[in-house]
Amino acid sequence: MVYDEHIAAIATALERRQAILFVGAGISMNVGLPSWTCLIEHMLADLDLAQSSLGSRDATYQEIAEYYRLKHGSLSRLVEWMKREWQISPQQLKNSELHRLIVALDFPLIYTTNYDANLELSYQAFGRPYARITSAKDLATATVGVAHIVKYHGDFSDPDTLVLTESDYFDRLSFDAPLDIKFTSDAFASTMLFVGYSMSDLNIRFLLHRLWSIWQRTGLGQHRPPLFLFMHEPSEVQTHVLKRWGVTVISGDGQSSGHSLSRFLKRLVEQRSTVGLDQ
After folding, report:
1. Where are the chain's structural domains?
2. Which CATH superfamily is domain 2-33+88-278 in?
3. Predicted local distance difference test score (pLDDT) of residue 144
4. Alpha helix (H) ranges present in the chain?
5. pTM to 2 decimal places
6. What is the pLDDT of residues 183-200, one digit of tens each?
7. Which InterPro entries does its entry note (predicted)?
């Protein structure tokens, strides 16, 4: 089956320590963290704006966050609210099958656009070492030989690193920040698996397109490591557009997005064990 071939390819890359996991908001939402809709509702309430104001034009959360910073002078109050609301207890994380499976897979490198520390807390809960990377300083000092968790859009521990407003996203489109340079280098040498993304995130879509464009310009696209994106119920449009960019969409077969991903990661853990025994 093609599904099994995809799992085998990722498991083999993991065994060779040439694999990257890219984690999106869907993972945190599966353990009860607020959705982006909740974030929008909170910002609008804090700004004394009627939620119906969204109906007249499709304002994104980045645009609303931009307005929030202009009105309040900073995002400090919003970040404090997010710190309180976007975290769960270590015990809840220990009970989360998704987080347990992610830690068990032992990816050498994890990128995440999530601001929360739930991945890091999961590694702590299961007694596994890691290094958190949020800046150029962290790149230079991160411990070698442990899982590196790269907070691609920043971390609550340093609000200045957060990529949240429209301007923040535009500034990152040049892809010349230290974390962007690192990601481009890492992506050229590793098989990648994206999980927890609905692909409505224009920033991630642009990232995938940019990787494809760079490989096309080299004339060596046939040597590009595989890039997989797991989705519960991908549409035909999503599947074909992403395929054009060299992204293989893996479709889930569970009752919900969380259930589908758990089943997939379980099979990946099992396959990883088999690959390790065969070598």
Report:
1. 2-33+88-278, 36-85
2. TPP-binding domain (3.40.50.1220)
3. 94
4. 2-15, 25-29, 36-46, 53-56, 61-72, 76-85, 90-94, 97-105, 118-125, 136-141, 166-172, 178-189, 202-218, 236-244, 257-278
5. 0.92
6. 999 999 999 999 998 777
7. DHS-like_NAD/FAD-binding_dom (IPR029035), Uncharacterised_Sir2-like (IPR014583)
